[in-house]
Amino acid sequence: MNAPFASLAPCVRTASLDDRHESARIRAFVDAHPDGTPFHLPPWSRAIAAGCGQAAQYLVAERAGALVGVLPLTEVHSPLFGRALVSSGFAVEGGILADSDAAARVLETEAWLLAQRLACSTLELRGGQVHGSGWQVDAEHYCYFARPIAADDDAELRAIPRRQRAEVRRSFTFDLGVTIGSGATDRAAHYAVYAQSVRNLGSPVFPRALFDAVLHEFGGDVDILTVWKDGVPLASTLSLYWRGAMYPYWGGGTRDARTWRANDRMYFAMIRHGFARGCTRFDLGRSKVGTGAAAFKKNFGFPARPLVYFKKSAAGTAPREINPLDPRFSLGVALWQRLPLAVANRVGPLIARGLG
């Protein structure tokens, strides 16, 4: 007599994300899983591969032909930071997603074996759970910020702590324009603002091809909101929409944005735009503990919860570490902040594409 299907051990293989049927199966699984995120979806993996040139290695676990787990991996190569297998590449979440401990275990095991076969000295899992040994657990460096969206403008303003609320109200007194779209003008404005913003923070900017690839892959589930003053973009964010939540992901402001409170206007405009699109949750993503970005999100009334990441490295090898707050990188950050923007924009993508 055959054993019930539930007792069969799951099998793991690498999925073909170019196969529409395969991608549709994965999408259905992620959509139905309570812990799914946009970063588990095939469009995210395809966009990273197209925009940064880093190969997708998407693992799926199956039992008796049914999908029981997924793990989106990105094979990251960097001459500065080495080789790593990351789940999910260039994302804030995206660890193992499974319907049982058995499925999670086989995905974890196969991911480490794959990392070794690909000569990646580090395996990084962002979120989810791990069951095996040898993992370095980090629950201290990053926090996640999300909260429900209020039903109207007044309620949303009341949800913002008083001091920050005053800054938002002040932004309304300036002659600022807000545009939303995904056309050539929106993309150019977003990249100009974002590139200046990260240069000012001392970080290299991602390739523009990455943003174009995300806009292409997610179609109507992504757009760009930009705040303008006298025809000049001051603040801009690219946001994803998935399962009733708005995910502002890549955004920033120029130095002039502070003068005109453009960042305050942008965040309030994004929340209201998300509500207009039918979203009930505003997901501001992660920030490093102790940074100005984390403080800004808290000031907007977003509670912080720790993010738990896992790393495993080959014997005798330290895990890959990319943290601009690390004192070892402080000189590089300071020098990058002084680079002419044109130079930072030319060199930055060559570095950032290997950050993962």
TrEMBL record:
<dbReference type="InterPro" id="IPR050644">
    <property type="entry name" value="PG_Glycine_Bridge_Synth"/>
</dbReference>
<dbReference type="InterPro" id="IPR017469">
    <property type="entry name" value="PEP-CTERM_FemAB-rel"/>
</dbReference>
<dbReference type="Pfam" id="PF13480">
    <property type="entry name" value="Acetyltransf_6"/>
</dbReference>
<dbReference type="InterPro" id="IPR038740">
    <property type="entry name" value="BioF2-like_GNAT_dom"/>
</dbReference>
<dbReference type="InterPro" id="IPR016181">
    <property type="entry name" value="Acyl_CoA_acyltransferase"/>
</dbReference>
<protein>
    <submittedName>
        <fullName>FemAB-related protein (PEP-CTERM system-associated)</fullName>
    </submittedName>
</protein>
<feature type="domain" description="BioF2-like acetyltransferase">
    <location>
        <begin position="162"/>
        <end position="298"/>
    </location>
</feature>
